[in-house]
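Handout, page 2. Input:
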Amino acid sequence: MGMQSVAVACGALTLCLALTTATNPGFVVRITQAGLDYAQQQGIAILEKELAQLKLPDFSGKSGKVRYSFSSLRIPSFRLPYSRITPIPNVGLQVSISNAFAELDGDWRVKFLFIKGHGSFNVKVQNVNIKIILRLGSDTTGRPTISTSDCTATISNVRVRFSGKLAWLYNLFHRIIERKLRKALESKVCENVARSVQNELQKQVRTLPVTARIDDKIGIDYSLVAPPRATTQSLDLDMKGEFYSLAHRSPVPFSPLPLAFPSDHERMVYFGASSYFFNTAGIAYHEAGALVFEITEAMIPEEAGFSLDTSLFSAFIPQLEEMYPNMPMKFRVSTPTAPFLTIGEGGISFQPIVDIQAYAILPNSRLAPLFLLSLTGNVSAVINVRSGRIVGSLDVGRIRLSLKDSAVGTFQVHFVQSIMNYLTSSVLLPHLNARLDEGFRLPLPDRIQLSNILVRFHQNFLLLGADVRFQPQG
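Output:
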């Protein structure tokens, strides 16, 4: 085999290894051009304020027999009326600013032979063009980073006007002064841009959560699995998107599938939450023992018209009345395995298997096992976004019961079907939906609010779209 063939084979092997070890995201955030444009507007407003606080150095010099000095240079205003942000594949973002203008003023002093004078000056700076390249990356914790990889500033027009005695002397060599001011401004603009990106933009980016704590048992891993990915139309953040137990994190026994993200651009930002994302929630809560509920007499609504005791079932289970007459009962509801859901164009659905263990509460408060039912049924979910959190509710269709074990003899489960239907719909489901209504936090930087929410279902993932609004401090 020739050297060229060996090189080709090695290249193919490397590509295959890269593809097989690539990590699919469980959660994707896509910022569209509309979202980038809005971010650019907010950033330009901040940059204008920063540039208006530029500190230009005093300078002095000599032209012929004239010695001059300039001091107390101030910038009352710096305007950036035209700007554009563009994603650059494999690099990051390019910000182009054109036809910017500024105004400067300050003090001058002059000495010509034995004559001395001083006064003030005003500078009109026009046709300022700035090009900034922002490089996007990620740190070791999976948090996004942003930095200025290149900045160029060019100024086409600088006009200085002097006032005071001997101002006519300056007008003789104003081109020298204008050239020095132009060079100082071009340098300082880019210095200020880099500082603004580091102090303001990077600071805001770092508020994007890498992990989000849901409660005292569960958190969500939103760390990046790859650096932010710029395309010609958007900026994508591929995140791990995985729920985990705070007490003990164990590996997930399956991997996320690729997300066929649609090319929607109606909203500023889109969130793609995969079935992997939601199914890791089921695993984490199941392993943490959080999918265990109890149904007691205190939870039965008054309008139910019955009490949760053995007399409720004695007509269907004769031995129950003989062994535990008129004793209060409780049910322990648990999942033998973690629930597993599917997402398709019709929505979110799953068929959980639930164990319901019935107990009699003895006079000494000990529990006597009565019977164990297995419950399954079709469950659908309604998803929405509120206050930057994914919230939801469940709806249960027809449930199916089977008897797994009994300490009070066998019985036909269809006799208790109506009771279990009621307990499921009126006690268990409201309890679950109250928890789901609290929701969990989306990966959003601080002071970002969502509006105009869009919810769509696709094969293997849920797509959430929204417009954003930045809430300034104070």
